[in-house]
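Researcher: We're teaching a course module on how sequence relates to structure. For the next exercise, students receive a sequence and then see the predicted structure as C-alpha cells, so they can try to spot secondary structure elements on their own. Here is the exercise chain.
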Amino acid sequence: MTHNAISIFLSDKRPFIGSDVYRILLPFEFINEGKKINATWAFYGEMLTKHRQGIFDWNKLMEEMDIFIFPRAFVVSEESETALVHLFSELRRMGKKVVYELDDDLSNEYREVGSGDLRPLLPHVDLVTVTTEALKNRMLEIGATSPIKVLPNSLNPRMWKRNHFKDRSDNLVIGLTGSPTHYNDWIVLMDVLPKIVEKYPDVRIVTMGFNPPYLHDIKNTIYSKGVPYKDYPQVIKSFDIVLAPVDPTDKFNWSKSPLKLIEGMGAVRRLDGTLAGAAVIASDSVVYSPYVTNREHALIVNHDEDSWFDGISEVIEDTKLRNSLQKSGFRHAWKNFDMSKTYVKWVEAYEDMFNAVQVP
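Model: And here is the predicted structure for the students to work with:
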C-alpha cells in the first residue's frame, strides 16, 4: 500500500535552511523515487492564506494525506499550544499519523535556541524522528513517550559526489563554515589561525556563513557570506582541509549530528587520479569522535589551542597523512552517509507506524 505524506513547516513561506534540506527535501526526493510513499511539503502560513482565499481546501488535504510531519515545531503561547494540540489530536482521531521531526536539542535548557517549547506537543504524536542516538536519549529525558527513530543526516550524491574539480596544484585552502551558533565553538581558533598563516604564508583560509569579530583581520583569509544550498557543496569541494571545532563541554552540542564532518569527507574532488574528499580536523567530542577512526578517516584533536595548532600544522606538512585522510574519509562518508541508501530508514520508520497500535 502506498501512503501519502506531507511535511508542514509551521511558518510563512521562506527560504529553505540547511535542516529543511537534510531532514525533509533531500530524503523526500529519494522516497518519492522509491514509490512506496508519496511525499511532499508545504508552509502552513501559505496554506492558511490560500484556504482563506478559497483556493486551497485544508479539509481535503487532511483526508488525502496519511502522514503529517512537523519539523522543529514548538509552541510560543497558550493559544498556539491549544491550536497545535487540537490539530494533532484531530489528525490522529481521523486515523492519520503525526510525526515530530527535529535535528537539535530545542528544549532551551542548555542554550536558548527558540522562543517556545516543544514539550507540550510530544504526547500528541505517533513518532519522533531525530538525527542521532544522543538526541534520541535527550528526547527521552524531556518526556517523549512515542517511538523515536534515528534517521541520520546524509549527503545527496547528485550534489556532493559529482562535478568534481580536476587535480589541484594551487595553494592549500582551509575552510571553516557554519552559523552564529558556533560563536563559542570557534573561539579556540582565535589565536590559532593567525599563527597558521604566519607559519605557512602560502596557505589560504576561507570562513563562510559566520564571520565572528574575533577572527577578523587575519592575513590570507577570505570572509564570505553564506551561499544558497545549491551552491554550498561546490564551496566545500574547493577546500583541502575542513575544520570542525565544537566545544565538547557544551551540553547543547552533545545532541548535534556530525554533519560538518560528513560534508567535508564527502565533498568530491580528484586527488592523484582518484576520488577523494577534504581532510577533516574535528574536535574530540561526542559529536564527531564516535563516527570515525582517528587518523584514518579524519584527524580528531583535543579542543584546546595547542592541539588545534599542532593538528592543522601536521595536516599541512604531512602530505601523505593529508591525502590518506582525504581518500579514506571519502570512502567512509559514502559507505555510511549516502542518502540514496539511507532514505530507506525514513520509509521503514513511517511504515512501522502503521503496524503499531496508536496510543490515544
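Model: If you want an answer key for the exercise: Residues 319-336 form the longest helix (18 residues). The radius of gyration is 22 Å.
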